[in-house]
Amino acid sequence: DCMKLNPSFLGIALSSLLAIDLWASKRLGVCAGEDSAWGSARPLMKVIEVSGHGIPWLLGTFCGGGAPKKTQPTMLTHCYCLLALLLDLVLVAAVKGLVKRRRPTHNKMDMFVTISVDKYSFPSGHATRAALVCRFILRHLVLAVPLRVLVVLWALIVSISRVMLGRHNMTDVLFGLLLGYMLYSVVEYCWLSPLSAPALFALW
């Protein structure tokens, strides 16, 4: 009762930030429905949504890694990417199940291939995956500068589209980007060591 009558400064600050997050997220959800401000752009946003979904990335990586005439470094790269994507799915699902933050009330649940924990919002799996894939591509693929810029823009657009579609609040996306960025660093440190790389290649 004393806490309710005399809330701490930290409690007030967190409540205020949460209120701002919910308000701004709702204002930015301009593609949340066909009758929204930018409802006509909703189909395009949903295409972007699919581009950041886990299933296309997992299937593409798995099929690409199994192609014939792959050199050892190329196969190891595919193996590394596939394991990183699997770890991303498991980690995001675990955090969602632990936090259990509901999706925004203005969200329309018509997402592409969902599972049980997808009813929760925190963190954004698309944002986590976008940051992870972006860092992976920039680190392991030799691309011209314009293509590298496009990869970064793709990751940003996928993340922004989550709020525009009403799927997530802003803090879900920001934490997802941070989580994906950190996850890549951890995965690269653990899996690309001289000791683990040969074992991964043998497993693949």
TrEMBL record:
One of its GO terms (cellular component) is endoplasmic reticulum membrane. The chain crosses the membrane at residues 75-99, 141-161, 173-192. It is an enzyme of class 3 (hydrolase). It is a multi-pass membrane protein. CDD domains: PAP2_containing_2_like (cd03391). It catalyses: (2E,6E)-farnesyl diphosphate + H2O = (2E,6E)-farnesyl phosphate + phosphate + H(+); (2E)-geranyl phosphate + H2O = (2E)-geraniol + phosphate; presqualene diphosphate + H2O = presqualene phosphate + phosphate + H(+); (2E,6E)-farnesyl phosphate + H2O = (2E,6E)-farnesol + phosphate. Residues 1-24 form the signal peptide. SMART domains: acidPPc. It is found in: Endoplasmic reticulum membrane; Nucleus inner membrane. GO terms for molecular function: sphingosine-1-phosphate phosphatase activity. Keywords: Endoplasmic reticulum, Hydrolase, Lipid metabolism, Membrane, Nucleus, Signal, Transmembrane, Transmembrane helix. GO terms for biological process: lipid metabolic process. Residues 77-188 form the Phosphatidic acid phosphatase type 2/haloperoxidase domain. It holds the Pfam family PAP2. The keyword Cell inner membrane does not apply. InterPro entries: PAP2/HPO, PAP2/HPO_sf. Its EC number is 3.6.1.68. Belongs to the PA-phosphatase related phosphoesterase family. This is Polyisoprenoid diphosphate/phosphate phosphohydrolase PLPP6. It comes from Apaloderma vittatum (Bar-tailed trogon).
